[in-house]
Amino acid sequence: MIRLLAATIIGLSLFGGAHAATFAQKDTATLRALDKITGRSTDIDVKVGEPVVFGSLKVELKTCYQTPPEEAPESAAFLKIHSTQPVAVETMEAAVSAEGVETVNEANPELFSGWMYASSPGLSALEHPVYDIWVIRCTAPDPVKLPAPVTTPDDEPMLDDVPPSLDTEPTPE
């Protein structure tokens, strides 16, 4: 209860106040997951509404906020983390899709629900004997790149796309 109160106070101080940071909502969070048994850490990209499974945890991102580059760096993500039946994966470097993974029942309880802050990972942390998960940053999808402009070979005449000027008279033929 004290941790929840402390997290709420810190959260309000981050979002409120005279010198409050401006946050932009993003749709993807980069989380770092640590397997305490093997000592391996893995970065996982989680999109809003697309939960992933890491080991025996199902991680669901509800929302993510990031400060702009000109302000002090801060990322805040609201996460829900559930226990699942362990999912066998070839490598721990890749989280697997969480479709069809059963959660929230007596055997698979909700382990964490709340805000995590990149600048204060210990403030509101997942308490799990095998895994640690914390927020690194929030991002938006990369902009779509336009295709390269079409060029014509030098031997073909270029079409004049510039309309005629209004102050010139048409040339008689």
**SSE sequence, one letter per element:** HEEEEEEEEE
Content-based structural category: mainly beta
Question: What integer value in Å does the Rg equal?
Answer: 25 Å
Biggest sheet character: 6 strands, antiparallel
Beta-strand residue fraction = 25-35%
Task: Provide the residue-averaged pLDDT.
Answer: 75
Record the SSE blueprint:
Elements: H1 2-15, E1 24-26, E2 28-35, E3 40-47, E4 52-54, E5 57-66, E6 75-83, E7 96-97, E8 110-117, E9 131-139
Antiparallel strand pairs: 1-5, 2-3, 2-9, 4-5, 4-7, 5-6, 6-8
Commentary on this structure:
The structure is a single chain. 8% of the residues lie in helices and 35% in strands. It is mainly beta and 173 residues long. The protein has one domain. The strands form 2 sheets. Strands 1, 4, 5, 6, 7 and 8 form a 6-stranded antiparallel β-sheet that branches. Strands 3-2-9 form a 3-stranded antiparallel β-sheet, with no helix packed on it. A hairpin with a 4-residue loop joins β2 and β3. The longest helix has 14 residues, at 2-15. It starts with a helix and ends in a 34-residue tail after the last strand. The model is unreliable at 88-96 (pLDDT under 50).
Short description:
This protein is mostly beta strands. It has one helix and nine strands.
Give descriptors for this structure:
six-stranded antiparallel sheet; mainly beta
